[in-house]
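lol ok so funny story. i was supposed to be doing the assay writeup but got distracted and ended up predicting the structure for this chain instead. priorities right. anyway since i did it might as well share w the group, maybe its usefull for someone
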Amino acid sequence: MRNIKWALALACILPALGYAQQNYTIQGTVGKLDKPAKAYLRLNYDGKERIDSMEMKSGKFEFKGSIPSPMEAHLRIIHDNVPFDPAKPPKQDILPFLIEGTTIKFVATDSIKHAKISGSPLNAENERVNALLKPIYDQYEALNNEYKAKSLADQQDPKFIKSLEDRANAIQQQTIDAKLDYVAKNPKSYMALMAFNSTLPPEFDAVKAEKIFATLDPSLQASILGKDLAKRIALVKKTSEGVEAQDFTQPDIEGKPVKLSDYRGKYVLIDFWASWCAPCRRENPNLVKSYAKYQKEGFEILGVSMDKAADKAKWLKAIQDDGLTWKQVGDLKGWDNEAGVMYDVKAIPMNFLVDPHGKIIAKYLRGEELDKKLAEIFKK
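and the output, tada:
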């Protein structure tokens, strides 16, 4: 997305208490485009996509409306009415921006994606923050250029790859630190909310995140993005280490119901995966190895499929091909798997290690990390 590095999908959770409806006006000029050129404004919130459109006249367009809080939006220009050819798809002329309750002007000579924005304090602040972060992002570009300059043999060298990964991780931490510093210094800025939101990976420390979220202005917490963030924190908190694992029931490959609570008294790894997931399939040999080593000690695995019903045959074949001898369950709803939603699974492979008392004691154990954790538990 152009110059908006922090935006995520939006949803609702908290009662509105800060932002009232905001009226906006979007005025644009793109050269001298005329009919059949059309302008489109797209918003997405409360689970609904909202698209407004109008024909261009002498290069101009205007949209008016209201929003419950600032949010990300997109402007798109269709320059002609040539039928879409999937063999030769045209380049899309799209500009993501932040919409707020004011008159925002866009001026461009040829395409909306090159437009200059005025009249919007929020977009101006976005540009300032991007400039602040640019020296850090430039380090990523330098790493990429270093990689491309190497020979194929050097690119595949494990030591070089490890060096790149270590340096990339260090740059990522610099980015997070810079954003959190901005959040601490600008608790009333909507950009601070976006910055904080962007620092949270699929798995994060929910207790720490909750404390930082509480420092933000109540109006930000009540915005569309703030509500979504509050929901994420609450969901992740339910799967934090030390809390009781939420029970669920899913059918196994024969259609028989299996409960997580059936495993009380044993250490059980809840493993979310799918037949189509290459990283999951690469991880399966590690699970097979750990299962063979520790099953007799009281270790079990409960595989939960994120496959869809149409892929059931592929799921069953993957179980057989990968030698997965432990119990496999799944409601075959894909990403809408009820257990996956309950555990806020946004990426796979993902796993949770539950102790004999039903409490989560670790999660996202990949590679040798699972074996190390089990060796610690069973003193091997």
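The two ends are 49 Å apart (CA to CA). The CA atoms of residues 54 and 74 lie 14 Å apart.
back to the writeup now i swear
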